[in-house]
Amino acid sequence: MNYIRRTIIISFLLSLSFVTTAQLDEVYFKKLQTEKVTSSDEVEWTQFGPGMSGYCEEFWCHPTDENVMFMSPDMYNSYGSWDNGKSWQTIKDVDGNGKDMRRIQSITFSHQNAKFGLAIDVRGHLYRSWDKGRNWQRDASKDFGGKHSELAVDPSNDNNWYMGGGDFWNVKANHRSKDNTLGYVYPYAAYGHIYKSTDKGHTWQKKTNGLPSTLDVGKIIVDPTNSNNILAATNSGVYRSTDQGENWTLSGSGLPNNLPRDMDYYYNKKDNEFVLYVLEQTVFKPNGNSISSIGGVYKSTDHGASWTSITGNLAIDLTLVTSYTSRDKYYKSVAFWLGITKEQAKTKYPNYPNKALSVFNRIKVNPNNKDEIYLNHNVKHDMAFGPGDIWKTSNGGSKWIATARTGSYWIDNKDNNYWTNIRNNPTDMNTTFAHLHHHMTEREETWGNRFLEINSKGEVFACIEQQVMRSNNNGESWQQVDDNETKSGSKNWIGRGDSNLPGRYMLLETGIKERYLFCSGEHGLWESGYLDGYPDKMAIPVHQIEGQNNTNGATSIASVAVNPKNPDEIYILMFRQDHRGQLRKSTNGGKTWQNVSKPVNWSADESGDMMFQYSLLLDYKNPKNIYFCMPENAIAEVSSNNVPSAFKDFGVYRSLNGGSSFTIENTGLPANSSVRRIIMDPTTPTTLYAAVNESKTKVKGGLFKTTDQGNHWTKMTIPGEILSVNNVFIDRNTKNIFISCGRYEGTMGEGGVWKSTDKGKNWTKIFEMPYIWQTETSPVNSKIITVVAALPHENKGASIFNPGAYLSLDGGDSWKKINNNIGQPDEIPDFKPDPYTEGIYWCALKGSGWSVGYSKNITEGWAKENLKNDVVGINILDLNNESIKLFPNPVKDICNIDIKLDNKNADVQIDIINMNAQSVLHLQKNTSERISFSTQNLTPGMYIVSIKMNNTEYSRRFMKISE
């Protein structure tokens, strides 16, 4: 009996994995877990990818220095420029927890001391800068009770500051209507007051005298001629104080509605002229079978005591503007204001008005010309309508024109007689975009411009669709300022550093050594490009191969894979928007795409419902075997909670027929579990591993393995404290397995990185932080390990310190935090070493595109001048109606021969001959548009290609160069 008992105990113990933590530097990790640690200078990151590529919520120009400006896009990043927008840098704390300076509501600088400024963020936190905004320090002693929407300084005395509570500028949610002129109430905002400081923001007093408890403040202007006189544009009207903000009264004399949407001012110091401008909310009133619009633009020359209209001809004639889009948006706007449906509005008010005012929401005046005024409306997100994203007057309001014109409405000269002969309005498209340009020409104006700003020189800035635009010629033309093109027409873009792109999975091994592929949200699939002589040799050019560059292209790419036997064959999955749920394929390197099948079958709300997919894998022995996974708990995702509750088809998807059909293979996996990642064994493709993270319903995660292509999964033994495995990785050289563990609200001990050197029998903990998303090793040096430490829950997690990118150069014995220039260290969806070069690293950021990291010893940038495996040099033989193209030349790896023949079925024989007249490679093809061959086994030097076809021999030289 004792023998049996001992045998059972021994068998049980043998079934357990052996766990050690011998490698851990406990002192170092304790410090990481409990205090802020400065990043090592080992790696410096540089953002790349298309600039902006998202909605910019706010933009500010320094009041006295036209070279200084700031922006805060909607993906929780914030940037500053000190060279007039030529480049942008993060203004967030790279060694913080990632929650600072996000969705900033206002940045304001002193008019006396250009270096001194204050800022407030989405949480109502106050920040201070003494170096023109390069660095910001939060004043943690201040608690203003929630979100505040406006911050203003006295232009005559920078001791005096004012802060208004509310959520006034939330253009996607804060809409006014007849029955709700105050707008909506944001639960995390503070309302009903204006704060005042007389000591540069060190102390504040709340002022409420004369103000309603529902007050939502949009703009505060301190009279530059009299510090006692202050104006505030609010949801309850224009208010005025004549005693430095102590008491407030309504000041809307002359305003038809006293429902201001924005306010600005002009001040001429030489003659002390001060003019205020207010933009009114448009009110719609039934007028028989039609609608009257009441609103417009007003000015005050008596310090805000009274107002006169300068609306002029701002209204458009909808009997002559026949665009379906404009008319449909008009009824949407009217219906919302009146509280009826769009169809009811069309039925009750069928006659279009000849004077219809859109719902404009921003106003800016040129500080050097009081008669030059700009207006903005947001047709996509607000209740606006009509052509022209930005309108302008050059004569003080008598005449207004659509000054920013984009899209097919203008290109096709629709309603040309009205605009040309009646309004004398230019009708050309006068906006120039980067990668979006093709897309912007295909549609009418339904863009979502969220800001309007002007600097001290009179240069105007706006965000049309998802590009920041600038006009430096008084609105005559507008150019994007987010990207530099390597050379004109190349479509290879180098971002200036202001990305708002949802960066996602990066595929760095694509079968073509210098072709990397990058997935993104909303902006498709990108490929590394050429430098084309671009002066910054450390920059990374990219060009879009699927997305807005193609009509009806896929825009939100979940994952990408390449056929291991044919690098021209690329597969992608989409998690949102166009082609969501489809498996999409290109057979020509991304030039054209077609859908193969729809494995994720969900048809509702293609924009709002998320279908997150990951780990798209093709069997390297039989590429017809395709796998991917759908996690139930999609951590690291934007809008991860937007997966519809009715959808249940999570798990591992498999196709055995090249993607024509898929089945879900979850046998052996826990019920209702969440498979976050899968990986294929590097030597046996029928063996796969699944990293199962904790599900939303608290189903415990783990590590699972299949040896029969997913038919059956078995649970692997891992340390018992682990409740969630977020990622699994296998080093191709050592075959070591790494698992990344931890939960958003987990404990310290359950989080970290474990390594197994014996196929999962024993595990060693090599990294200890509470919430790890990813671990990878370098294919060229297994001692190089990269780790992503995400930020746990700020209140319920195990630590709020030091999220970000970590690097070990000695196999995990020691670690360095390498966050330099990463503005979102808390949200890194992908991070890995370069597969070919030590000292180069790549990461994707949840709302800042992608970044390349160079170690200190790297002096040459990754992108090479005309050495990428595409058309570098082309040798062409013209043979009457036939041609042969050989490229690239010189060649590093894959050489391509394109053959265009009259006889499509000709036999083609190719010999590669060295300078000793020896054939080193022989190929025989029965016709092909492209024949590709590898030159990896060829020594550098000159070679001759001998091509025999149709009883004729042709030859051409090419140069093989080294890596």
From TrEMBL:
Domain Secretion system C-terminal sorting: where?
886-958
Signal sequence residues: 1-22
Start and end residues of each stretch annotated as Disordered: 474-495
All residue ranges annotated as the Sortilin N-terminal domain in the record: 193-312, 652-769
Q: Which key words are in the record?
A: Repeat, Signal
Which Pfam families did the record assign? Por_Secre_tail, Sortilin-Vps10
Out of the domains of life, which is the source?
Bacteria
Start-end of Polar residues biased regions: 474-491
Transmembrane spans: none
**Example GO biological process:** xyloglucan metabolic process
Instruction: Name the PANTHER family on file.
Output: EXO-ALPHA-SIALIDASE, XYLOGLUCANASE (EUROFUNG)
NCBIfam families, alphabetically? Por_Secre_tail
Q: What is this protein called?
A: Secretion system C-terminal sorting domain-containing protein
User: Which species does the entry assign this protein to?
Assistant: Labilibaculum filiforme
